[in-house]
């Protein structure tokens, strides 16, 4: 048996190793070491999110002018002549050579492009610390993306619940999903209202609010075509207001229950104005003569 002195002499100095303590509520197996590549990707993601955010702010200029002249004015009961005058005034602003390309096409392209880029980048590595939270049944964090604006239960004080979209499609959030729907319905609207006249006449100078009346009351596909036009216009309005308002509240870091109620109030108000405006458009008289024939050509293009 070795003596105590021999045991002491056999001891050797070792290099100390730091111990990483995982954050509270995070399993130790989910911790990871940050590499230089990780930092590069984080910077890229941060830049893309900034581009997406500020391009959205730029688009708000056009969005506000267009909504005011096509939804708010008819929705609050202004006369057709006044609505048309306001529409002409706003259109002269947002279809100006500088405003149109910089504040509409460029901002939309940057916003959509940065969003697609963010979806293509594998960010799951940076969300590992949140994987445990995503499995929670009782949600207490009002800032989570997968709850959206919270739904009816949140407004009634019943707590937060994961949205149907995020439950069935975990990679999507209500804001992201509404953005996809908005983009598709906006593309349909843009073709009908802007591209079709350009393909027929070379420009869209003949377009007035009366064209919306033709759009809602006439279709070479009959009743089904008119129903599709109604649905697409209403879908564009409702989804656009949800996406814009909820996105704006997110960028402004407004996640309280009061903020969510205000957001729902704004969305509901403008969607209701859209319904009223569409009802009024459908009661206006159709254009006759040359302009009426051109409107029919635009609508029959697809």
TrEMBL record:
<dbReference type="InterPro" id="IPR039960">
    <property type="entry name" value="MCP1"/>
</dbReference>
<feature type="transmembrane region" description="Helical">
    <location>
        <begin position="227"/>
        <end position="249"/>
    </location>
</feature>
<feature type="transmembrane region" description="Helical">
    <location>
        <begin position="261"/>
        <end position="281"/>
    </location>
</feature>
<feature type="domain" description="Mitochondrial adapter protein MCP1 transmembrane">
    <location>
        <begin position="62"/>
        <end position="154"/>
    </location>
</feature>
<dbReference type="InterPro" id="IPR012472">
    <property type="entry name" value="MCP1_TM"/>
</dbReference>
<feature type="transmembrane region" description="Helical">
    <location>
        <begin position="171"/>
        <end position="191"/>
    </location>
</feature>
<dbReference type="Pfam" id="PF07950">
    <property type="entry name" value="MCP1_TM"/>
</dbReference>
<protein>
    <submittedName>
        <fullName>MDM10-complementing protein</fullName>
    </submittedName>
</protein>
<keyword id="KW-0472">Membrane</keyword>
<dbReference type="GO" id="GO:0005741">
    <property type="term" value="C:mitochondrial outer membrane"/>
</dbReference>
<feature type="transmembrane region" description="Helical">
    <location>
        <begin position="98"/>
        <end position="118"/>
    </location>
</feature>
<keyword id="KW-0812">Transmembrane</keyword>
<dbReference type="GO" id="GO:0055088">
    <property type="term" value="P:lipid homeostasis"/>
</dbReference>
<dbReference type="GO" id="GO:0007005">
    <property type="term" value="P:mitochondrion organization"/>
</dbReference>
<keyword id="KW-1133">Transmembrane helix</keyword>
<feature type="domain" description="Mitochondrial adapter protein MCP1 transmembrane">
    <location>
        <begin position="186"/>
        <end position="253"/>
    </location>
</feature>
<feature type="transmembrane region" description="Helical">
    <location>
        <begin position="56"/>
        <end position="78"/>
    </location>
</feature>
